Amino acid sequence: MRAQFVLSEIGVGLRRNLTMTFAVIVSVALSLALFGGALLMREQVSTMKDYWYDKVNVSIFLCNKNDAATSPKCAKGAVTTEQKEQIEADLKKMDIVETVHHESTDEAYKHYKEQYSDTAIASVITPDQMQESFRVKLDDPEKYKVVATAFAGRDGVESVQDQRGILQNLFDLMNGMNVAALGVMALMLIIALMLIVNTVRVSAFSRRRETGIMRLVGASSFYIQMPFIMEAAFAGLLGGAVACIMLLVGRYFLIDHGIALAEKMQLVNFIGWDAVLSVLPLVLVIGLLMPSLAAFVALRKYLKV
Question: What is the tens place of the pLDDT at every residue in 32-81?
Fold first, then answer.
């Protein structure tokens, strides 16, 4: 096959269907940008889970004298010294427990004042109203239920709380945004495929005389189809390249500069450039192959002579 002929046919096809080719490029770029963004969002959620789940603790709150009137679990009164020692000893015996820290009422009061000093209730809270607790760090945060089952309901224990629950709503929101992005991506992908098929059909119809002559002189189906497939592949590759640029620009302005989330949300461990760069080859490959396969399928119907 003469490469010069194929390239000339590609140029002719792109010029004849310039508007539709542009629409294909835009739709492919948007759908692949959403696809890449969804992959990065999933990576971000995974990174945040690994980062925060390693830092959160299981908190075992102990009964104080004020809880006896308000909590049925503390009906027997405030936790005793013996009960505290037994709880701590049992915690340290568990293989899944990494560290155990006892937080006194004075420490709890100090931390509360540091976090909520601007609120009106902070001025009336006293140390004796705060709860003692054990802050338990687990080797595997997913095994929280083992601790909860062992200590919930014990004498002197008011409640057992997993701090992961505080973060779970955020992770659920991000996962929901990820699903929404995938849904929009699927819609844009369908639109892009329809545009590709329609563009190929119009291009094949406008050159039906040339393809008919080529068929009559013995040209193979692959030889005839190649310019059309290459046109679609070229448009898809451009769309993939635009999508890659959008992902790079988005990472730059959202996290590093512009909105600069990395500076405003320093407690969040954002994904790095390596995660973004690892997605780009997949985006380019899909941008190249998806239109090519769509064009190949469409040509089997519209290039019959």
Answer: 888 888 888 888 877 777 666 666 678 888 888 777 767 788 878 888 88
Cβ–Cβ under 8 Å, residues 65 and 81: no
What is the rounded CA–CA span in Å between residue 26 and residue 98?
52
CA distances to 52, 112, 231, 249 from 281, rounded to whole Å, are 30, 49, 20, 16
Looking at residue 73, its pLDDT comes to 81
- pLDDT higher than 90, residue 130: no
Residues 219-250 as b or e (16 or more Cβ within 10 Å = b): eeeeebbbbbbbbbbbbbbbbbbbbbebbeeb
This prediction has a pTM of 0.63
Cβ neighbours for 35, distance < 8 A, ≥ 6 positions apart: 182, 185, 189, 243, 283, 286
Instruction: Tell me which DSSP letter residue 255 carries.
Output: I
Closest by CA position to 305, among listed 248, 228, 224, 229: 224
